[in-house]
Amino acid sequence: MHTDTHIPPLGGGRGWRDNATRYALLPLRVFLGVTFIYAGLDKLTDSAFMKEAGSGSIGDMMRAVRDSAAIPALVDMALKNPVAFGNVIAIGELAVGIGTLIGLFARLAALGGALISLSLWLTVSWASDPYYYGNDLAYLMAWLPLVLAGAPMLSVDAALRSRRRQRAGGHR
Q1: Cα–Cα dist 63/53, whole Å
Q2: Per-residue pLDDT tens over the stretch 101-141
């Protein structure tokens, strides 16, 4: 049984199926990265969203879901300062999206994305009936393979890992 985690370069004696397997998480990484960057920017640039009250505001949205949330205490915490909470979520989405897209601290970024998705599922989309209409659960599940695998291909993490190997004098 081969246990080495070193991944040879593209075309390193492997067939197209092996290469496809190595790059299998890349489309998921690109989708989640772009989506979370867009979601963060959308929140930060939407003047109606970043208000305590009013049509389309974070405050009104949180008050609307409070009684149907799985954990109302999470919503209560956010309602203490909805604008600050909205900013934290938006900046978190941006950081997660950028980290995921470029593959920098990819597992940590994916964990952040999973936690954001989990918190949104337990609050905003918990009341979706049937449950699969709420997209936050699907996002949570989509983050899990990236939490486990990171970004082994076409990423800053992979480049840094390769650089460390070269400095150490070869393959580990």
Answers
A1: 9
A2: 999 999 999 999 999 999 999 999 998 988 888 899 999 99
